[in-house]
Amino acid sequence: MVGGIVDFRGLPRDRPVPNVNRVIEVRNLSKRYGETVAVEDLSFTVRPGRVTGFLGPNGAGKSTTMRMILGLDRPTGGRALIDGEPFARLGEPLRRVGALLETTAAHGGRRARDHLRWLARSNRIPERRAAEVLRMTGLENVARRRVKGFSLGMGRRLGLAAALLGDPAVLLLDEPLNGLDPQGILWMRNLMRELAAEGRTVFVSSHLMGEMALTADHLVVIARGRLLADTTAAAFVAAHSRAYVRIRTPEPERMRDVLAGAGIAVGTAPDGALETEGAEPARIGELAAAHGLVVHEVSALESSLEEAFMRLTGEAR
Amino acid sequence: MSAARAALRAELLKLRTTRSTVWTLVLTFVLSAGLALLVGLSMRSGFDRMAPDARAAFDPVLISFYGLMIGEIAVVAFGVLFVGSEYTSGMVLASLTAVPRRGVFYGAKVLAGALTAAGLSLVTGFAAFFAGQAALGPHGVSLGSAGALRATLLACVHLTLMGVFAMGVAAIARGTALPLGIMIPLLFLDSQGLGNVPGIRTVAQYLPDQVGFVMMRTVRPDRSSVGYRGFGPWTGLGVLLLWTAAAVVGGYLVLRRRDA
């Protein structure tokens, strides 16, 4: 990392955030490439003042959806609106919508500062904003370096600087954590939360459930181009996390019979250990003792969100 | 209208801030004017050894512009790189999120490139004329001689339009490799006289760079000569305008229809 981390909070904000009611509306959006369906009848709304996570495995249609919202790809059906209008109709769109796309989208032979200068000029944004967003994203020391020498993380930061250039009320961030080091991930997470706290609409895609659970207030989950869940992050976690007890014993078949005799359903984990959701560890220990069974492990566990996410998106296949 | 002007200013800034576009423009000038000087000097010393009929067909004005036809390779590279690098670098995504109306983006881009090419061409065309004529010494002519000003202005126009044509082709191809791979060898071959080869002349004489040869000369060879063409300079300009318009419109249609 060059330039160090700049605390977003430490920056002067000389004007209030404009228009806090901006929302992204996706209505029956579809995209097909010949026979291949990338996005199928997708509808959801992204509201201001919170971080909305857009989750799905790789290839689920997240980037395609974001590109359709930005008017880069043409939908086969349905539409995407920002503030009630298609993106292409927004005047000076960088002042209203900031987008970080998965590709760097900058010419390798151009200096970072010049990349931001032409963007500013295209939307009549004062050029001093280029220096401001370079400072915000910790790129001030490489402002005069050509983009082709940038690491993946620096490229992401430059993309973010471009997104923040017009001080927009709506932000679309496609996999913003890719290529960032742990320090950068923490910084990006705080920045997204800060932007949402200022009343902005923050729509951020990721294929990492665990990361989104820490960052997002609301989740839109898709797989194979279809909507699976549109819910608060807390509700998603409550609905999809699973508590279970893991049991290891040299006599799994006898243990299975004992537990079945007590009316407790048992499953087998891939490593051969037994798993059950039907009883507390104490009860299992008592049953084992009563039947003279040796146990090597009885532990209460909770399945990770990542597993819940895999299970949910896996079922969509 | 202000949106279009802002987009144009952004494109002009893009043009100035990469080395490739700046260097291809410098190279266009250096090749055109430099070769005009060299070709002029070589013809000056060779003139006395020329046969009488060759002397009669000698076109001093055209001597200034042989180098410019090589310089056109650089202006074509400029046009292709300026438009094609939008695609090869992925920058077109940023461009279209900043200027989502594709007609405005494309118009601003082509206009920025065309204005720059025109400015460069005006300087280059006249520099090549004066360099070539100075080098020819006693065999050179002034701008006031018959057809000289017309040939020089059309040389400027030809150089400009070749750059614009290249931009359109790059927009159709959505990249740099294919247009450069096709146009540069073709231009190089053409500058060696592809349009003089009898079998392919019928078609080749109407290629965008070949019409330049007709636009820039002041002596019209007779029917038996290898340099004979079935049309004059103004028809040549018309043909070139058609080529340029087709490429620019084609590029727009591709941009409008395709996903970015």
Automatic annotation (TrEMBL), chain B:
Top-level division of the source organism's lineage: Bacteria
Record flagged with keyword Membrane: yes
Residue spans crossing the bilayer: 20-41, 61-84, 104-130, 151-173, 234-255
Keywords per UniProt: Membrane, Transmembrane, Transmembrane helix
Protein's UniProt name: ABC transporter permease subunit
